[in-house]
Structure prediction request, 413 residues.
Amino acid sequence: MDQPSEIQHPVFLDRTAAPHIVTLTLMAGLAAMNMNIFLPSLPGMARYFQTDYALMQLAVSGYLGVTAVLQVVIGPLSDRYGRRPVMLGCILIFLVASLGCLLAPSAESFLLFRMFSGTVVGGMILSRAIVRDMVPPDRAASMLGYVTMGMALVPMVSPMIGGVLDELFGWHSIFVVLIGAGLGLLWLVRADLGETNRHRSTGFAAQFRAYPELVRSQRFWGYSLTIAFTSGAFFALLGGGPYVARTVYGLGVGMVGVYMGTIAIGYMFGNFVSGRLSMRVGIDRMLLAGAIVAVISMILALLLYGSGLRHPLAFFAPVALLGVGNGLAMPNGNAGLVSVRPHLAGSASGLGGLLMVGGGAALSALAGALLGPESGAWPLLIVMLTSTVFGVITALHVRHVARRRGALGSGAS
Prediction:
């Protein structure tokens, strides 16, 4: 059971064959788009609803919290009932919730519908589980590298698209576009996504009884924590990067977005390298390489900042290298955690996602809280370095377990 039976080669828009990589990328991409396309509109939305900006920011922080919880619900549901029906259900709820956001008469009702729209995160969870249903671990890492490389484009362009839509047509137009994208994805999933879960759990009781088997796995925690710590530096950057860019480097709003985009460029490059090398090198080595690159990036950033350089590139060039490290670690770590117990791939994907998003949200809040007018960028850089160091430690633990117990898929935890 540790190795999936090979599913027929992908044929686009054929449900009887494996889903196409384009479908998996768009499933994950819509979740990323829903997260950040409306960010430039938050101040205007606060004025529209005549409420405080702090309340409207719950559309970000509250949404992150809801999606963290949803990840441990959607994964097990897909293990029990299959990937296809759960994904279709997630999209349908997202469409209804997005319509509610569009028509909301108050900030409170908008936020309620916004939380329900978080079901679209199923695209991120299930794309990982579907890939693992289809192919063995090393091939899964390669496929996930290409999926996440395509998905990385979305956070780069979505806020720009949202800003243009807001300026031309008002913030409501953003949710019209989201509804249109959701309808398109619904059609695509119905046409292309056949069921890939060939080993469904017999019931929730049996599934939850199997959870300790997953939780006791040293490999599962190694992969999950390496992802959480390595990506934690990125989440910390989201929490403190804009503040540092504005107060330390004096960048305007537009340039903040440009420089913050450097990590996405590095991330795409790392994903591309993962797609090319993971099958040849192995996921454990690629995971460790990504964690080491992330640490090097943060050491470089600290050295440049400590030397007194105050050009924005002295900060954001190492951030691009951090993106490369994330791009190497994430696909391989995700392939590993869903391969520890393939019959619990959805559950593993969800629990791993909870650790990543929940830990990332905490680090983001910590970085934001530590920064102040007199602190400069030091608190942010220290938080980011500390997170990446722990990522290397947990990646080394994965290699240690592999040396003691054999390669992933050999039956050892």
About this structure: Residues 7-200 form a domain with the Growth Hormone; Chain: A; fold (CATH 1.20.1250.20). DSSP finds 18 helices and no strands in the chain.
